[in-house]
Structures are given as C-alpha cells and as structure tokens.
C-alpha cells in the first residue's frame, strides 16, 4: 500500500496551517497541553486541521498528537499510525521566526523501528517540506500552488554549524567542554530555539550538530521521542548522518512507553556524532 494519500494530507494541512499562521490573531487559550507548556490557539487549530485531514484516509488507523494526552483511533481497520507535533516552536511566531510541523508515519505500532517515513514542514519566509522515505530525503518548496521538488539531501561527513539546546548553566560539564571544543575548531553558532528550522538549516548546509542534552533541571532532556526526536532521527539517518542519545544508543532503537516521553538527543553528521560519543565516553 502506498503512503501517497498520507503525504497529500500533510501537504493540504501545511497550506491550511500556513494560512492560519498568516491570518489569525495569537491569543493564549485557557488550556495547557499534556506536558504543561502554554498552548497557543494556533497549536489547537493546527492540531484540528491535521486530525481532520488524516480522518479522511481509511488507511490511517490512529494518530497521536503532541497536543493530545492519548492516541486517538481513526479507522479501526487502517494500517498506519501517525504521530505529529502540529506546530513545533509556536511561541516563536510572536517574534516572526520560523516554526514547523513534524510527522512520523509508522507501520501498525508506534515503535521507532516501525517508522516508515518522516516528514516535516517549515513555515518560514517560504513554505517548505522535507520527506524521508525509502532511503531518500527529498526537499520541496511550495511554489505556484504546489510543492516542487528541489534536491535530494545528503549530509556531508563533517559540517560547520553548532546548535546547542538547553540552558548552559544546567549542562553537564563534559557537554559544555564538547560544545566549546567545536566552537574552538571553527564551528558557528546557529540556534533559533525552533527545532524544525534549526535542524533544517544543518541539513541543508551540509551538516553540523544539534544537541539537546540531559540537564540538571531536565535529566531526560526536553524533546519528545514520538513527536520530535524519532522523526528527525529518521531524517538524519536517511540523509547519511547519525542520531544518538547520551548513552551512544541510536535514537531509533529506544523504546517509547509513553507518548510524551523525552530523551537527551544529538543529531548530526558522522564526525560530530563521533565527537559526542568521545565526550560522553560512550565510544
Ligand atoms: O520543544 C519545543 C522547542 O521549542 C523545540 O522546537 C526547540 O528545539 C526547543 O524547544 C528549544 O528549547 P530551549 O529553549 O530550551 O533550547
């Protein structure tokens, strides 16, 4: 069975969310999402848009959203499960920075090893989409009313960018030494605070490191396995890079017992991931 209808639904959601971002007032709702962040009205709208588009596809068995506590069954007899973050980094809209939607498409169950494809959308000066499916990572730009394919993305062996997440004073000392040593080697800081644009930039500019470590205030990191970490691990590995946790394990081999579970995570080209392993003593 093809995933085409699912990709089409993601594209449709992307236009609708892009329009909502451009036209809606930002107002904080009364609600809080499952992990306690303030939920913007636009988060809820984006969640509803995506759920509505997926509900039209009989092959979609269930969805899990960063905005929902539990997974939701759409079609009992469907095959695919989709986990998504409808509007990652939404607070950045306030300051007109890029944000994104992230999707992981699974065969029958939400296990990292069962991921078939990952897709993300970037809402920035342009509307862009990246898909990782069947061993290739493809980049699309929305022009003349449709997503037009640009290039296939491959990460270089070694990059130039460094995107270190989290609050520095809560970093473990070996993490700080690793980040500093990359800067000492000539790496440039590129960090907006939006996971989608930050990882997108590293992918399109050949490589580098995005890290979100376990910290004294958040020992398991901040980023959610199902909605943020697994899809980007799939994209980075498919592009020839690597994605690990602080024990050196492939992120795509980690279990996920709760939809909102988080993990320390590192995404990059081969060279930088080897540097992380050395710094963390998990060679
Ligand atoms: O999970 C939401 C998010 O905004 C990500 O998009 C981003 O990578 C991260 O949080 C930024 O966190 P921090 O501000 O702690 O570096």
Structural overview:
- Helix 1 (about 5-25) runs antiparallel to helix 2.
- The protein folds into 2 domains: about 5-150, 2-Layer Sandwich (Fructose-1,6-Bisphosphatase, Chain A, domain 1), CATH 3.30.540.10; about 160-280, D-Maltodextrin-Binding Protein, domain 2, CATH 3.40.190.80.
- The longest helix is centred in the N-terminal third of the chain and has 20 residues, at about 5-25.
- About 30% of the residues lie in helices and about 30% in strands.
- It has helices at about 5-25, 40-55, 175-185, 195-205, 225-240, 270-280, and strands at about 30, 40, 60-65, 70-75, 80-90, 100-105, 115-125, 125-135, 135-145, 145-150, 160-165, 190, 210, 240-245, 265-270.
- A hairpin with a 2-residue loop joins strand 8 (about 125-135) and strand 9.
- The termini are far apart.
- It contains 6 helices and 15 strands.
- The strands form 3 sheets. Strands 4-3-5-6-7-8-9-10 form an 8-stranded mixed sheet, sandwiched between helices. Strands 12-11-13-15-14 form a 5-stranded mixed sheet, sandwiched between helices.
- By secondary structure, it is of the alpha+beta class.
- The mean pLDDT is about 95.
- It binds 6-O-phosphono-beta-D-fructofuranose.
- 6-O-phosphono-beta-D-fructofuranose (F6P) binds near residues 89, 193, 194, 222 and 223.
- 6-O-phosphono-beta-D-fructofuranose binds next to loops.
